[in-house]
Design brief:
Layout lengths: L2 E5 L4 E5 L3 E2 L4 H13 L5 E4 L5 E2 L1 H16 L4 E4 L3 H9 L7 E3 L2 H23 L1
Parallel strand pairs: 2-4, 3-5, 4-6, 6-7
Antiparallel strand pairs: 1-2
Length: 127
Amino acid sequence: MKYTIEKTEKYSLIQLHEEKLNSLIAPDLKSEFVKLNAEGIRNIIVDMSEVKYVDSSGLSSILVGNRLCENDEGLFVLAKSTEHVLKLVAISHLDSILNILPTVEESIDAVFMNEVEKNLRSGDKDE
């Protein structure tokens, strides 16, 4: 799997450099999500701008990443998805489950907003 990863204090950004997210790539992506989660990363942004096609195993790997982040009260975001990928996600009825944003910048903002909201909620519990 060809990709780059940028790790920051609040999130990790994975840029996929593949045209197809299929059964050949999906296991590696799943492993990367599990590894990041084990490192304590709870917010993951996946830049999908180069991905033109996703099959069921690709969608499954995306759902694994989403579940891992949700379990840690984090945020999993697909950014810059192509029109074809967006259609496949919608056909699969995953558009109501996944966080999908048009740009990486908006995805980063969403992660920071989620962190602020989480901190406010945990502050309310302490009182």
